[in-house]
């Protein structure tokens, strides 16, 4: 089943989990429930008014996400692959992943699909914010991992970073992770769609997202860094993902 | 005694928001505090060459660097945040400050730590409201240690259309350290510093420099956060400061830590009476102060005679 599951050391450097705990400590900001309440209301309001404030969406995700993170941690630890992630705590950024090398990989490999996605949408893996408000380093890591594989979820589902693509990915993630931020993003984000996209959303994207979210394997529990050379169709088969076909 | 309880109260408050290590430092301070020692205690805990950065004790050079970083990161959002945190009241404090200074057309003002121009623009407005000046020449030198803040101020001046021709006041922008001004002795008739002196590493040196650059008869005026004489009001104010202000920073400016520093540095600043005696120690006479909004802020004034 995992024919092409192979570790490619030269493409990724294993991050030290101790480093992560230290880094988390540096960024951690202690808050009480009163402060969390204002942060929740405030960040939700600001995210709605100005979707470009990515930091507010991140903040909202953290202050409302505790029980979802426990759920995610549990789901990740269900597989051997997931346990490895939780143990090694790998990070995804331009220091740990060589995008130049990924871009040179054969077409149709996971690595190439990811690198192409990043170039096409003109985004960098370094723009993911550090977790600030989660005290437990293990849960903080789950949130950090969620953020860092978000682009990989986009890439492997072939969803662009348009509002339509974003909302669709949020639904898949929301169903799998149960993060309130994702679910709300799916619901309220859809309200910002233009008429043409809204029609496509209701006809194709939403039903597909719900199906994918329910059928696919847990996407935060995939050690993508060890699958760069896996064929994307093989990857889809393994993860129970069916590509969206519009007709 | 009141001070001791306040320090204790503060250390309790910090339980919520501070890491264990810092908390330990705080509680050591409060248990070792004998009531008589009062505000000097914190200083006693520090080794020579150390100072406060908020509630942290850091090396003196480090404070300068850290304060610099804080203002570099907040410069752009500085004015918005002032409005959000004080609910607009800071505008009134600054207006009152300018009324108390009551500049005249021949005033030569040095506005220290005035990067974004809040005081300088009020000064210009005040002079304009006096009516056309008859050939007298007034000027303001806006000094700030941080170029990022000065840039914001320059942009605002441009937007407001303040050129020497249009407003009749000469504006100079200068990046300088309040503790070491490269300005000649006896060269200004007024020196103002609004919400700036708290961030300086050596307050005494700042005051000495202010004294040096002022002409005899010149006036020193300082607007700064202070202590509320009423314990209940101080409690309410503390809750707002520690519980709400950093959250507002996160929401409106995307930054928590600079605003945590802000509220901590306010608590570390000497109270009205202590600051008054520091001003007197620098040589100023006729030193008085006035509380604004129950003592949230105070305006200190002194003359070089």
Automatic annotation (TrEMBL), chain A:
Main location: mitochondrion
EC number annotated for this UniProt entry: 4.1.1.130
Keywords for the protein's UniProt record, in alphabetical order: Lyase, Membrane, Metal-binding, Mitochondrion, Mitochondrion inner membrane, Ubiquinone, Ubiquinone biosynthesis, Zinc
Residues holding Zn(2+): 150-151, 154, 166
Bilayer topology annotation: Peripheral membrane protein
UniProt catalytic activity: a 4-hydroxy-3-methoxy-5-(all-trans-polyprenyl)benzoate + H(+) = a 2-methoxy-6-(all-trans-polyprenyl)phenol + CO2
Enzyme type, top EC level: lyase
Localization per record: Mitochondrion inner membrane
Sample GO molecular function, one term: zinc ion binding
UniProt-listed InterPro entries: Coq4 (IPR007715), Coq4_euk (IPR027540)
Cofactor: Zn(2+)
Pathway entry: Cofactor biosynthesis; ubiquinone biosynthesis
GO CC annotation terms, alphabetical: extrinsic component of mitochondrial inner membrane
Record's subunit section: Component of a multi-subunit COQ enzyme complex.
HAMAP family referenced in this protein's UniProt entry, alphabetically: Coq4
Similarity comment: family membership: Belongs to the COQ4 family.
Functional note: Lyase that catalyzes the C1-decarboxylation of 4-hydroxy-3-methoxy-5-(all-trans-polyprenyl)benzoic acid into 2-methoxy-6-(all-trans-polyprenyl)phenol during ubiquinone biosynthesis.
Protein name per its UniProtKB record: Ubiquinone biosynthesis protein COQ4 homolog, mitochondrial
Taxonomy of the source species: Eukaryota, Metazoa, Ecdysozoa, Arthropoda, Hexapoda
Encoding gene (name): LOC118262391
Automatic annotation (TrEMBL), chain B:
Entry binding sites for S-adenosyl-L-methionine: 116, 144, 177-178
HAMAP family: MenG_UbiE_methyltr
Membrane association type: Peripheral membrane protein
Stored Gene3D superfamilies: Vaccinia Virus protein VP39
Name of protein: 2-methoxy-6-polyprenyl-1,4-benzoquinol methylase, mitochondrial
Compartments, record wording: Mitochondrion inner membrane
Biased composition (Polar residues): 22-35
GO molecular function, one term: 2-methoxy-6-polyprenyl-1,4-benzoquinol methyltransferase activity
Family statement drawn from the similarity comment of this UniProt entry: Belongs to the class I-like SAM-binding methyltransferase superfamily. MenG/UbiE family.
CDD domains referenced in this protein's UniProt entry, alphabetically: AdoMet_MTases
Classification via Pfam families: Ubie_methyltran
Main location: mitochondrion
GO cellular component terms, semicolon-separated: extrinsic component of mitochondrial inner membrane
Protein keywords: Membrane, Methyltransferase, Mitochondrion, Mitochondrion inner membrane, S-adenosyl-L-methionine, Transferase, Ubiquinone biosynthesis
